[in-house]
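@channel sequence for tomorrow's demo:
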Amino acid sequence: MSDGYWQLEGNAAELYQRYMVPAITMKWAEDLVTRARLCAGEAVLDLACGTGVVARLAANRVAPGPVTGLDLNAGMLAVARSVPGGETISWMEGSALDLPFGNESFDVVLCQLGLQFFPDQPKALREMRRVTRPAGRIATSVYGPIEHTPGAHVFVRALDTVLGPDASRIKRGEHSFADPGEFEALLREAGFVSIEVQTVAQTLVFPSVLDYVRFQLLASPMTVLLGDRREAERQAAIASVASETARLATPEMQDGGRFTFPQEGYVAVARAP
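structure tokens (generated this afternoon):
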């Protein structure tokens, strides 16, 4: 996806596909693809495709139209190629800041929960605009402020308590957009028109607080926090963070032993002039 921390190593990409996709990203993917109103025959780019959940959903809707999934992370792309349903999709490694496509190559550009990771968001949006055909459209989503996602908020507070005051930097970076207006302004500055930004909430449910913490620390960019520790030390750190997260969470979030909470995001659909 982006440079720097969004580089999943080892089996983290497989864990991401196995646990994070069904728990989180599939919900957002179904919403994004529905809002994009894809039509058969359209050419689609899924930017920052990860393990390909959006691209596979899009391919089902635009067939026989071509779908391309592009990501910076080779490990994520390797998993994307292995998941059933993506056989007709072209998977490519590349940067959102320098898309390897000609001008006006796609009818639709999709980017789910990737923009917040790009080191130069205006440039990435200009690149999306460049490769979108006239009257084509983009559909893209980002997370809202972390305070609006209670489970993530207590988790980052626990991280800072257990692992140090800078431990939550990566997770907080996922929630860098303060409001829908900021998102809309970036799209407008990139040259898009007919911009609609909606505030959307998805309800997330994990088997337990411990499972949520384990998934975050072993199947996301936050693997770097524990990467240099022995296995026993990793498991002890995960247990400590989970204990502190549970202490900070409200009883409603832990109903029946599960860990459940709303996750807020902003979803935008816009057109190229």
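heads up for whoever presents: The chain has a mean pLDDT of 94.
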